[in-house]
């Protein structure tokens, strides 16, 4: 399936359009007559680009060229900002801008998608939010100056992404920002098997320093933090669903029901079954708050 320019751009001169996907549903294999920057705002899912799958979560950025083909599958609360643009329609045609901002990102996507798949921090996402909102408004206007303003905002967005993005392993990040991303990774992927020592190395820490820095920043160990995130999810599921306790345990990242019950009882002071009964009888004031992860 090929997405045509006339479906998204108001006229032949428009160079930039924002297409929010809130949420992004599963979308079949397609390509475009234009280029695209995809920013993941929340949720998760599988993004298959040129037959290579990536599990994506908040803060990831993809540069998609017209020649690429991609699709989204098995999405869960996935919210995206799709920035559609036509480089040949940009009023600002500086060769320096083209070379510094687009030359790397427009290379054909190889096996590693080198230069095409990045991450940004929570701080950068927050800084980009008003820029994206302004770009949405301007790209929907029809007056002659809206094209100029849209392009100015687009360049601001592209420069901010270029300056603040970092590789997927997080190794180039300063320690504080790197740890922020580790916390985000744990919150988004708690249901998956996670080897904390491997995670430390992936984000550029030695195992020893990772545990020390993590405790200094959070007041707890990486293992305890992950358990708290998982128990917090289980508490929410116990209060909002009728799923079995076994299913909730597995959905929360525990592969052993007995260990789940042990951790839950240790943190909440009651068993999962007793916790659910308490919720059915009335509000629980202290139990839930003690296990919440800030």
What would the principal axes of the Cα set say about the shape?
Answer: elongated
Q: Main beta sheet, described?
A: 8 strands, mixed
H/I helix tally: 11
Extended strand count: 8
CATH superfamily (homologous) name of the largest domain = Regulatory protein AraC
Strand content: 15-25%
> Which stretches are low in confidence, meaning pLDDT under 50 for 5 or more residues running?
283-294
Secondary structure category: alpha+beta
Q: Find the CATH topology of the largest domain.
A: Jelly Rolls
Give the CATH level 1 class of the largest domain: Mainly Beta
What oligomeric assembly is this protein in? single chain
| Average predicted confidence as pLDDT | 83
- Give the distance, in angstroms, between the N- and C-terminal Cα atoms: 43 Å
Rg for CA atoms: 22 Å
Sequence-ordered SSE layout with sheet pairings:
Elements: E1 2-3, E2 16-21, E3 27-32, E4 35-49, E5 52-57, E6 60-64, E7 70-85, H1 95-102, E8 117-119, H2 122-139, H3 144-164, H4 175-189, H5 196-202, H6 207-218, H7 222-240, H8 245-251, H9 257-268, H10 272-281, H11 286-291
Helix pairs in contact: 2-3
